[in-house]
Amino acid sequence: MTEMTDIQSESSVTNRSMLLKWSWRELWHGQLWPVAVALTLIIACVFALAALVVRVEKIMVDQGRSMIAADLVFRSANPVETPTLEKAEQLGLTVSQQVRFGTMAFSDEAMQLVSVKSVESDFPLRGELELQSPVDTHHQVQPGELWLAERLFDLLKVKPGDVLAIGDAELTVSGTIVQEPELSFNPFSQMPAVLIHADDLESTGAIQPGSRVQYRAYFTGADSQLKALQQQIELEPGQRWLSETSQGRTGDVIEKARQYLSLTLILVILMATATLVLTCMHYASTRTEVVAMMKSLGASRKWLWQWLARQLTMLFALALVAGIAIGALLEYLLRVPLVDVLPEPLPGIGFTPLAVSVLVALLVAIPGMGIPLLRLVDAPAISVIQRQENWPRNNKAYLLALLPLVAGLFWLGSNGLMWLTLLGLAAILVILAVFGVAIVRGLKRGRWRPAITLALSRINRSPMATGAQLAALTSSLMLLSVIWLLRSDLLADWQQTLPADAPNVFALNISPEQQQQYLNVLDQQQVMRSDSYPVIRGRITHINQQDLLERAQQGSQERDESLRRELNFTWRESMPVHNELTAGEWNKESGVSVESGIAERLGITVGDELAFNVNSQPFSAKVTSIRDVEWRNMRPNFYFIFTPDVMAELPATWLVSFRVEADQETVVNQLGRDYPTVTLLDLRTMATRIQGIMQQVSLSLSVLAGLGVVSGLLLVMTLLRLSLAQRRDEIRLYRTLGASRKRVSATVWGEYGIMALLAGVMAAAGAESVVAALVKWGFELPVSWHPGVWLVVPLLSLLLVVLIIRSMINSLLLPVRG
């Protein structure tokens, strides 16, 4: 009995060993290796992309937070309350406070309006503060110190060691502010900066009842702690949270880059999933006879699943190891173009890319491989003798598709951009597939050469199969086009945000008597400048005799920001060249032109009567036009531009912006000395910082777009190869029945050429539609069209067809030999 048990045990071990060896041979010598390659590519691409996304996002967040000097900033018009600071400390956050206000600085020889920042010794919590004294470099402000923006030394005629009066306090100048992390994006509120320590604030006596003072609290800590603090603080009027995504240009760039990174990852996953599903379906179709043979020899479903399970386990293990290794190498190669702009040391990637790549691979592989394999196991044994195209299906297998669907619902949540993309893609693919079949049917009615006629007949033979093939090929080309076009539109928008010739200095408070003389100096120095604008501050009060404040109080909507403060008004005879008229006409008399954003928010339309108040003087004007304004281009822009007759009698100062190049450094200081009453806002440092961030983001997005395009090309090539492989038996039958190589070859070229050209044109149309929708409703940018895509995508499609057919044509044209 013991001997019998030992024999059975040895037989079981031998069977498992043989099954393992067979599974290994099946993996490499059967048709399963393309599935392994596809799964490896999914893991590699997702790992590389996720790793780079993690790095780039951390870098962008770090850069953005460096520009606000903390992870989170609380801004208030009143002193920050003690309970707020106590809550932050209880959450384990690091806190630093700042008070900033405008005042006059007096030296023995001059005076100047300055922006004083009273900071604590640990400021900044993020970014770098560089202070240069005559003997050393400092990075923090200490009690008793006074640091000045470089321009103030000329304006106030002082040097380090001199005494400067700030309010009631007399402080000794310590040195120069070389670099500070905080940058203001409002040219109408920035003045030369002065840094003092918080301990010296009270001695200045500059803060009195009615003073315009801004209080800030800076916090650093874990994101969860920061979020908890925001949830516990209920904002009051005059209070606001500042984060890396709320700071003007950089916040806008970072937010849009995040959206693009997520969208690219989704599209790459979609393309990799399609590649895996196609290869797995092809594998299942090629192993039907093998499974049928094993069934005819007595193999049970349980044994077949053990056989397949071993193959799939080995396949997934190999794909995981190879995919992670290739992904890590790919992520390194993707960083090579960014080496000059990435910081050192690089932020870590953690376990997120590994977890995401494994999870995505499982979510894709379980339904992608499970559905065709469940159908494969159900293959009837009679298929050994006679091929069976259809047999009873296990419809429960399609429940596996719920797994990635539920995961997608959980992951995407309320992300409107992603849902817009996915639903738009699905709708467009259905439309294009139907449209493509209709076009092919229309082409068949024409008179063509025999090879083209046969190709069209072959395509029309199965409308469903034709529609599926066209949809698959079109979607592949469309997805890679969407990735690249979105990247191009984002970069174009950012270039418009800060063009190469953008102004980097603003001159404000120019008196009417100085205006022409000031402009003449700029022209003599060959400085590129804008037109000059008269500026006066005022408020909008009524629309068609309806009081806006009363309307805001009665309505449920929050009062618009433009109603909370005074706005900058100007007047001109002609519209600024960097504005675009969207409604009405530009008039030269008795009118006002309104910026489109505020017009939409306040419900202003052409023909409305608006009432304003400037220095307690009411006046009104009729809306004659609506303008689009690009607020981010650092040019003088205004909500309301009046005709000269409406406001010309009101007292105003003048504004001009200009660009100072590297060889014109002395111009700013000379202007400051010659026109001490003119406020000069030097934004060169800010522009350089913004351009640096944009360069990093732009290169990163280009690399990511390149990876997405490569994934799309792999999908297209896989699709074409599998399609031709499925045609092999049919083509060989034509050859066996006597069809010439020339005729069969011409038919193949004609069929796939028509499909490629049609798919390329439809992909271009689909990509334009999807990108237009994403740009308008997802990224909120102006829609632009891309004529080049209508040429490049069809040519790319034809090129891929040529490459694939040339690599397979000889094997396809071999006749069946008896």
Please tell me about this protein's structure.
This protein has 818 residues and is of the alpha+beta class. Helices cover 54% and strands 17% of the residues. It is built from 22 helices and 23 strands. The strands form two sheets. Strands 2-3-9-6-8-7 form a six-stranded mixed beta barrel. The chain has a six-stranded mixed beta barrel with strand order 14-16-21-18-20-19. Strand 4 and strand 5 form a beta hairpin. Helix 7 packs parallel to helix 20 (684-736), helix 10 packs antiparallel against helix 11 (402-412) and helix 12 (416-444) crosses helix 13 (450-460). It is elongated and about 105 Å long. The relative contact order is 0.11.
